[in-house]
Specification:
Length: 360
């Protein structure tokens, strides 16, 4: 997993995104060559159509991401890839047409777009089938060692059996910890006489997962873990492992030290600026796309029930600061009046009840 601003991204997902980004660029220029059957036209279009290439690739990959084709927990057989790729291509074609309408300078031509879309569909389908077939063989699968044989370590066995080979680290064995009752199969327990450094070298391990129940006292092998760390071996707490691999935090595996030293409370200026820029950019893009729908919605509300078009309400935001939220009105005027009247009636009844209790 790659960690970017407290978010974990699978190495396979990053590799897949990189491969498909380059493939789609190559397919785009190949489609131009096939459409015009002119090598000179394809060469001349390398720089001339580069903005259109980038827009095309981003739209294709965004549509695939929305459909869920970059989720590591989804099924990745040929049938699943085919049924997800078809709607993503339809969405991409519609978005490209809309982009051509908004930005005519990017217009490719209907024939070119159709040829490029067909080639992209075939290439992505073949590439994903080969990629996941190759990945399922465990070629790039990392190897991990677990420190602990108790209940926490037992949880890792069930997860290992449920996961596909190309997504999760392969657990080569469990190292017994002092005073811990064994809850894992004896065949998976490694020899206790060897040091962690020697076990790492023997089993070609790239990560050690800390799954011990008790970490206090002098039995915790902190010196050995530091030596492994110095040799480039990744040392991961079991709570961080669950967060990274499953996208959630198991409360029964948390320790106060994990919260103290965790990076989830990072609110640096750089992170805040990046987050704000992304929020504003995403909002502007969504606003531009949604403006036609918003105009139609406003007209329909006006025709059906007249003014006001928007509903305004006070909400509480960050730091307890109040702000006014605007949204399209979905309740008719008469329903709003009945609701307010019923609310006042209910409040009056509750006040009368409180007065009766006070008098008694």
């Amino acid at each position: 997993m790659l960690r970017i601003y407290n978010h974990y991204i699978s190495r396979y997902t990053a590799l897949l995104v990189s491969i498909e980004f380059l493939l789609l660029i190559a397919v785009f220029y190949l489609g131009i060559f096939v459409r015009f059957n002119d090598q000179g036209a394809a060469i001349d279009s390398l720089t001339l159509l580069f903005p259109a290439v980038i827009v095309y690739v981003l739209i294709i990959m965004s549509s695939m991401a929305v459909i869920g084709m970059y989720q590591i927990d989804s099924r990745q057989n040929f049938k699943a890839i085919l049924f997800r790729l078809m709607p993503s291509m339809v969405v991409s074609f519609a978005l490209m047409t809309f982009v051509f309408y908004l930005i005519p300078v990017l217009y490719l031509g209907r024939g070119v777009l159709i040829v490029v879309m067909i080639l992209s569909f075939c290439v992505i389908l073949a590439e994903r089938t080969l990629f996941f077939k190759w990945s399922s063989l465990g070629v790039l699968q990392p190897r991990a060692l677990v420190l602990g044989i108790g209940e926490n370590a037992k949880e890792l066995i069930g997860r290992q059996e449920d996961d596909s080979g190309y997504r999760r680290p392969k657990i080569v064995g469990f190292v017994p910890f002092y005073g811990e009752e064994r809850c894992v199969p004896a065949s998976d327990v490694l020899a206790s006489g060897s040091t962690l450094v020697s076990l790492v070298a023997q089993y070609n391990v790239s990560e050690i997962i800390i799954a011990t129940q008790e970490r206090r006292g002098g039995s915790f092998p902190i010196q050995e873990l530091l030596e492994c760390k110095m040799h480039g071996i990744k040392v991961t707490d079991i709570a961080t492992f669950f967060e990274r691999e499953k996208g959630h935090i198991r409360m029964d595996s948390l320790y106060p030290s994990w919260l103290v030293f965790g990076g989830g409370f990072d609110q640096s200026l750089f992170r805040s600026v990046i987050k704000r820029v992304f929020d504003v950019f995403a909002c502007v893009i969504l606003l531009v796309v949604a403006i036609p729908i918003m105009i139609v919605t406003a007209i329909l509300i006006l025709i059906e029930d007249g003014y006001p078009i928007f509903y305004q309400q006070e909400r509480v935001g960050k730091g307890g600061d109040a702000f006014m939220v605007l949204k399209f009105r979905s309740m008719k005027k008469m329903q709003r009046r009945i609701k307010r009247r019923n609310g006042r009636l209910r409040m009056t009844q509750e006040l009368h009840g409180l007065e009766g209790l006070y008098e008694n």
